[in-house]
Write a structure and sequence with these properties.
Length: about 290
């Protein structure tokens, strides 16, 4: 090879390397994220989303009984903004790398590891696990070509993380510590609220908990605090709804009557004027349940 040929070859090699270094290519497994808030807890999930591409995923591409990054590229991360319980076990607030161990039969193992910033599972250290739990898995007739995470709310304070890929669905259930967090917020708000407006703070707490039947007793306690401080159509109506949800219809009817009395006595009570027909319909329904 002559000198000119050598120089031409070297130029082409350097030029080719330069082009490669400058190219910004899209990922085969694109970045994805999902964020959702349940009660006071925000869940953030960041992951890379691989495709099935006609491959046999479980047992081949991703072997059974081996640690899997639950995504592609960097380790999937799950962040909880407050302490939670995952499958009934406590997990502190924080950001975790998330792994799964697929099983051919039965439940899979979900792992929350304290080292959030790591590539795949190559540097995974079991000693850094914050939590390991067994989680449910189901097969679906519907194929999800790309791996996808969603957060689903089931109750005012609980839900689940859903992973779908191919025909497989994995469910990781978690619960927020709503009552303690609400009590903290309530006490803080009361310190900043004038004495004449404290009934509103208790009414707001009662109204929030009225969304869940399992917190009926605490919701009713807050409603009692509110109506004891001040009689208004809105807080009596909140109390009535809570009592009806607890199937104490006679008490609910009595509280609704007090809501009407308070509303009729105050010409400026817009809540009662706007809600009068709805209150009357619901009271009629409750009365039919007591016959």
């Amino acid at each position: 090879m002559n000198t000119r040929s050598i120089l031409t070859f070297m130029f082409l090699c350097c030029f080719g390397n330069l082009l490669t270094a400058q190219m910004d290519l899209p990922r085969k497994s694109p970045r994805a994220s999902v964020s959702y808030t349940i009660a006071y807890t925000t869940v953030n999930i960041s992951y890379s989303s691989p495709a099935v591409k006609g491959r046999e995923i479980w047992g081949e591409l991703e072997p059974y009984n081996q640690l899997w990054r639950a995504g592609a590229n960097e380790a999937t991360t799950v962040e909880f903004s407050t302490p939670v319980k995952v499958e009934g076990k406590s997990l502190p607030q924080g950001k975790y790398s998330f792994f799964l161990i697929p099983k051919e039969e039965g439940k899979w193992t979900a792992i929350f590891n304290k080292v959030a910033d790591q590539w795949g599972a190559y540097s995974y250290d079991k000693e850094q696990d914050a939590l390991r739990v067994e989680v449910g898995m189901q097969e679906s007739k519907v194929n999800e070509e790309r791996l996808n995470y969603t957060v689903v709310e089931q109750e005012i304070d609980q839900g689940y993380i859903r992973l779908g890929w191919g025909h497989t669905r994995v469910y990781i259930r978690f619960q927020s510590d709503l009552l303690n967090q609400l009590e903290t917020q309530l006490n803080s708000a009361l310190l900043q609220t004038s004495e004449e407006d404290r009934w509103k703070t208790y009414a707001q707490a009662a109204d929030l908990l009225s969304e869940s039947s399992k917190y009926g007793k605490q919701a009713l306690a807050y409603a009692d605090e509110s109506t004891n401080l001040f009689s208004h159509s809105s807080n009596w109506w909140i109390k009535a709804r809570i009592q009806a949800a607890m199937e104490d219809y006679p008490a609910a009817i009595e509280s609704a009557k007090k809501a009407a009395e308070a509303g009729q006595a105050d010409e400026k009570d817009r809540f009662y004027r706007n809600s009068k027909s709805r209150i009357e319909r619901m009271v009629a329904d409750w009365e039919s349940r007591t016959r």
